[in-house]
Write a structure and sequence with these properties.
With about 350 residues, the protein is of the alpha/beta class. The chain has one domain: Rossmann fold (3-Layer(aba) Sandwich), CATH 3.40.50.720. Helices cover about 35% and strands about 20% of the residues. It contains 11 helices and 16 strands. The strands form 4 sheets. A 9-stranded mixed sheet has the order 3-2-1-4-5-6-10-15-14, sandwiched between helices. Strands 7-9-11 form a 3-stranded mixed sheet. Strand 14 and strand 15 form a beta hairpin. Helix 10 packs across helix 11. The longest helix is centred in the middle third of the chain and has 21 residues. The chain starts with 14 loop residues before the first strand and ends in a 6-residue tail after the last helix.
Length: about 350
Amino acid sequence: MHRFTTDAGELEGKTVLVTGGTGSFGRRFIETVLARTTPRKLIVFSRDELKQHEMQVDMAARFTPAQMARMRFFLGDVRDRQRLTLALRGVDVVIHAAALKQVPAAEYNPSEFIQTNVLGAENIVWAALANRVKQVIALSTDKACNPANLYGATKLASDKTFVAANNLSGDIGARFAVVRYGNVVGSRGSVAPLFQKLIAEGVRELPITDPRMTRFWITLNQGVDFVLSSLALMRGGEIFVPKIPSMKMTDLAAAMAPDLPIRVIGIRPGEKLHEMMISIDDARHVVDLGDRYAIEPAFVEFSRQSFAAEHPTVADGFSYASDTNDEWLSHEGLLQLLADGARAGAAPAGA
């Protein structure tokens, strides 16, 4: 299992706000930080009051009163710049995880995705600059690289917005970066929980959109650690990409239910056969940091030292795609990831 080493100590004594804080990533991130360090405040910013209530009740049963005293729950939508500006007062670090993510839904409802993913990103930048926030990390997706669907296009626009925001900070000194990774094992909307549900219900076959399809895979805990470690590394303008394994969707089905046949149902609207996280066109800006790549900004109009002064760059023609990846996830490796995710979700992260 990949480890992106971090102890979250860089958040000691700081006020941290997580947009989309009631989502799969947001909850795991908040629980991890609360378990590993002592922030001044941890703020959940999201628009669903029921999810916030359920999260408070669940966390209160698993964390101490002293830990819960650091929690704040702020109702709001990233589409609302005024509300964001209020929420970010006194905040040191923003983790932007709020997004609309379902690929077919984006094809049918493009304006909704643009409002949240693109204009919401712009609102985060404005509110962060207005409040002199020190660090902002935005979560992206492999679908933002060479996008073939509306969701990916909105996340690419979001990525560009956060990278360019560094050129606007001036004497504020705010720094913005992006993390881009693949499918999250165990998150809501992921195929692995869907397969688990179908298997538990006794289905006789598992649906596969195309037998050639491959995807990158990462766990929630790995994603949280990757964000935390990228927060410690960031200099402004980077898109950090983890080195993680790929797996064919047919192998995923075989690992989870070796006795069940598959049924090919066809690719959904906007879906790719393979995902890419770094394109050939990005390669001239890519630095290899060991456990991850950093796509450095093409335009730098602020004080920033390139990682290339200390780390190797990649070769011309390099790309990072799920079908040509050097690392592949075995059946045993997938089952281990699923087991690790289940254990991590049953107790305070890091406890």
